[in-house]
Amino acid sequence: MNTEGDKPLKVAVLGCGVVGSQVVRLLGEQSGDLAARVGAPVEIAGVAVRRLDAPRDVDVPAGLLTTDALGLVTRGDIDVVVEVIGGIEPARSLILAALENGASVVTANKALLAEDGPTLYEAAEKAGRDLYYEAAVAGAIPIVRPLRESLAGDKVTRVLGIVNGTTNFILDKMDTQGSGFEEALEEAQALGYAEADPTADVEGFDAAAKAAILASLAFHSRVTAADVHREGISDVTSGDVRSATDMGCVVKLLAIAELNATESGEEAVSVRVHPAMIPRSHPLASVREAYNAVFVESEAAGQLMFYGPGAGGAPTASAVLGDLVSVARNHRQGTRGVGESAYADRAVLPMGETRTRYHVAIDVDDRAGVLAAVATAFATHDVSIQTVRQEGRGDDAQLVVVSHEATDAQLSATVEELRGMDTVREVTSVMRVEGTDE
Amino acid sequence: MNTEGDKPLKVAVLGCGVVGSQVVRLLGEQSGDLAARVGAPVEIAGVAVRRLDAPRDVDVPAGLLTTDALGLVTRGDIDVVVEVIGGIEPARSLILAALENGASVVTANKALLAEDGPTLYEAAEKAGRDLYYEAAVAGAIPIVRPLRESLAGDKVTRVLGIVNGTTNFILDKMDTQGSGFEEALEEAQALGYAEADPTADVEGFDAAAKAAILASLAFHSRVTAADVHREGISDVTSGDVRSATDMGCVVKLLAIAELNATESGEEAVSVRVHPAMIPRSHPLASVREAYNAVFVESEAAGQLMFYGPGAGGAPTASAVLGDLVSVARNHRQGTRGVGESAYADRAVLPMGETRTRYHVAIDVDDRAGVLAAVATAFATHDVSIQTVRQEGRGDDAQLVVVSHEATDAQLSATVEELRGMDTVREVTSVMRVEGTDE
């Protein structure tokens, strides 16, 4: 199979930050193993950085460093480009230039893939080169390859992912320590799990990008970040977390991609990111601290879960290097691995038509007829109630209602109506319930 | 890349039992998706069975059934052979004949791979064809592909697997219901989780085959079933399970493959199957009922876990079909996927040199000096004690000792010495402790 003898495989690394420096380190430390696994030595041909004199976590020979990333990827002798700069530009232009120049590409860039993946996939297809991105979703956890290869003979019906470590850390602290959101966020920031501006994590933007990529892979369709319904965790209260505990659940920020039926009976993709209550017996419930996990349901395999560190320099670099070995082998053999698969071309279901369950906590007047009025509000919108629990008396009276599955539109109309009712003082908590059998 | 137009890919299925019938069913039901993913229609060319008129779970057109498996694999037009007969012969001869005749092979045959994998890998290499076997370890759980592809840029240091559903079901019942071994086994048999003759599962033979395959993959070395130290669960008592609970642990049958240092300081592979106590906080501890999970530690990625159904017709068929899609794509392109990687060629460490920890429960005379005598026995063999707990008084006095890590030889010599001591009435339980930080 070796068409080029032991000619070294030349790798250009774009970016030498948290991930890039670990990629460079591992390329050095594992060079013997990598050569054996690829079938040829793997050589760093250059490392593109923003500033030559910036401090970095790894020693890079000065001769390899360059600020001219475009010059590096187009210089003609590069076999594989590893893009770990992140963000939309210049990453996109550099990847496109690399593919046009005959290099295969490994990237960890979730934002770019979620925003404009198809442009990149088409360029890779046209160039006859690989574009691999295991590191873009859930860090070190192998999930891209299992979805597009291991489950290629099966029909995936649902993916539930804890794909953001920052928010999982915060929710875990709220659950185990009884912290409020702000307090848990501060702890996450102090420990380096959350950034000074935590918006991308806390408001679900990071998870939404990953949800789009997972949905595309699982359902062989094109789903972009703009298709993802997104709600973050900043409104989750310690009361919500206690309510979850009361019903044997835990609150997690989930990236959900599932096949739902449209009103006309076709299969469409529902893709969303929001906090949800899941039963404590669910495998995802035991994912603690900043770990990630992706739970996959398919028709033949049943329930699978993939668990591990979802971020960090070395774990992400491990995923990048796994891709690098595959891509390098293909490159040497003049073949390609599995590329984009979008043949199913399924539509994305509007959030309103997505079928979920709601947990609703309502402060009510403690008087006869209140329960009947609340039940009527659910019935009016055709939402069936699974359980109602009354807590407290007098001014503290609260009803906790858990619905059966209904469309999100029916559920939110029900909550809207509850909010307008005389007997309802306040709807204190509304949260979706996922991962149950119904 | 398509070198043969839309010429159908012809598949021969050997065996139409629990797994084979599901493979045939899915090949029919998923034919549209499979064609899109492979790039050509996938056609069943024949199904080899022992008896044409046997009852089976799927309708196979009579014209496809044959009792001449060898004739089927050698007839010249077969692209891929799926072997789901199991056992050593005739499976081995059929796979070798298939490869010689230019077919690629997908197999679920753990026993054959663990006993004589190298013969098959060499035949595949010589023929320039693929030999894939995701279904051979942990059923539907993608673990072969992650180990040989996703982690190809990393250094795996340890694999801990719950890879036998029967024994996990039994141990889970002993833990959650307080059942004894016999009672839990009967429940497993009544529910179809254990066979009438449960030896292969209960005595760890099935897990040992999987341990050999996992060790070969993780450490790029050749490890066979004969290299695996094997102990089953038939001696695990409800007292052991209670002792585990007392120290915050749970008993699991683990398949363990890890890098240990030899006395001369080289890296060697320790591979073993035995019941062990693991902390309840360990991700493997929450694997319930007949589920499987494989926990992987690597230098860069850290801790990963892969969880799912480890057996059953449809889950195993899902893994077979995932391989089939990969193999079929390669076959059409005239390329091969990743084959055997045994370059590291590490030695297998004798069990006596393997470093583990022991939990030892000892019935002792309740008199002064007993603890000192027991501690001396440990010290004599250079085994450091982590904790000692005394339980009961008088005739019920019991010492529970948990050691630090030492070689298995030192630990078993210590237990031997304890058994010979005057003050020791009985060593009631000896179990290894795994999955802790030390």
Can you put this structure into words, describing what you see?
- The structure is a homodimer of 438-residue chains.
- The longest helix of chain A has 21 residues, at 313-333.
- Chain A folds into 3 domains: 9-140 and 314-333, NAD(P)-binding Rossmann-like Domain (Rossmann fold, 3-Layer(aba) Sandwich); 144-309, Dihydrodipicolinate Reductase, domain 2, CATH 3.30.360.10; 354-433, ACT domain (Alpha-Beta Plaits), CATH 3.30.70.260.
- The first copy, chain A, is of the alpha/beta class.
- Helix content of chain A is 35%, strand content 25%.
- At the A-B interface, helix 2, helix 6, strand 12 and helix 12 of A face helix 2, helix 6, strand 12 and helix 12 of B.
- Strand 12 (302-309) of chain A pairs antiparallel with strand 12 (302-309) of chain B.
- Chains A, B: This is Homoserine dehydrogenase.
- Chains A, B: Its cofactor is a metal cation.
- Chains A, B: Residues 359-432 form the ACT domain.
- Chains A, B: It comes from Nocardioides immobilis.
What's the arrangement of secondary structure elements?
Two copies of one chain form a homodimer.
Chain A: E1 9-14, H1 18-29, H2 31-38, E2 42-48, E3 65-66, H3 69-73, E4 80-83, H4 91-100, E5 104-107, H5 110-127, E6 131-132, H6 144-150, E7 156-162, H7 165-177, H8 181-190, H9 199-202, H10 205-219, E8 229-230, H11 238-246, E9 249-261, E10 267-279, E11 291-298, E12 302-309, H12 313-333, E13 355-364, H13 370-380, E14 385-391, E15 398-403, E16 406-407, H14 408-419, E17 424-433
Parallel strand pairs in A: 1-2, 1-4, 2-3, 4-5, 5-6, 8-10, 10-17
Antiparallel strand pairs in A: 7-9, 7-11, 9-10, 11-12, 13-15, 13-16, 13-17, 14-15
Helix pairs in contact in A: 1-12, 4-5, 5-10, 7-8, 13-14
